[in-house]
Structure formats: C-alpha cells, structure tokens
Amino acid sequence: MTDFYALRKDVELALARVGEVRQSAGLDQLEEEIASLEKKSADSSLWDDPSKAQEILVALTEVKDRVKLLNDLKSQV
After folding, report:
1. CA dist list (Å): 54 to 39, 49, 71
2. pTM over 0.85
3. How far apart are CA 75 and CA 31, in angstroms?
4. Which one-letter DSSP state was computed for residue 47?
5. Where does 1-77 have alpha helices with state H?
6. Contact by Cβ (8 Å): 32, 38
7. If you average pLDDT over residues 23-52, what whole number do you get?
8. What is the pLDDT of residues 2-13, one digit of tens each?
9. Which of 2, 11, 58, 59 is deepest in the core (most CB within 10 A)?
10. Count of alpha carbons within 13 angstroms of residue 54, beta-carbon side
11. By the 8 A CB rule, do 77 and 11 touch?
C-alpha cells in the first residue's frame, strides 16, 4: 500500500512540473495568439494578398502545434 501512495505522490509531482512547463511556455499567450490568427484568417479579404494569407495560416498551424504538444505532454502524465 505504501508503494501506491509513493506512486501517487510521484504522479502529483509530475503533474505539477508539467503545469510549470506549460505556464513557462506561455500557454495562455499562445492561446491568445491562436484567437488572433483565427480572426485574421476569417477575414474575407485574407486572400487579397496570397503571400500574407499563407504566412498567417502557417503561423496559425505552428502555434496550434505548440499548444497541442503542451496539451499532449499533460495527458501523458
């Protein structure tokens, strides 16, 4: 039974560390950036400038990938 409590303590510690990593990675800021980029991508004039549109969509994908990585990290603990 002691092993169970030690394991539980280790998991709680790991979760706390993951939380710290997510916070230090600026998860809130990344989510705000996603909202901003999604707003820009929904603009009807987005494709008036194809290179700018491509830039916005690439940035959106990259930020979403970072957030996914941080969320996956938490779910793996």
Report:
1. 14, 9, 26
2. no
3. 18
4. G
5. 2-24, 27-41, 50-76
6. no
7. 91
8. 688 888 888 888
9. 59
10. 3
11. yes
Q: What is the residue type of 48?
A: D
User: Closest by alpha carbon to 41, among 63, 28, 58?
Assistant: 58
**pLDDT tens profile 66-76:** 899 888 877 77
* Angle between the N-to-C axes of helices 50-76 and 2-24, in degrees from 0 to 180, rounded to the nearest 10: 160
Q: Is 26 left (phi over 0), alpha (psi -120 to 50) or beta?
A: left
Q: Which amino acid would we find at residue 9?
A: K
Euclidean distance between CA atoms 42 and 51, whole angstroms: 16
CA angle 9, 15, 17 (to 5 degrees): 105
Sign of the CA dihedral 25, 29, 35, 41? negative
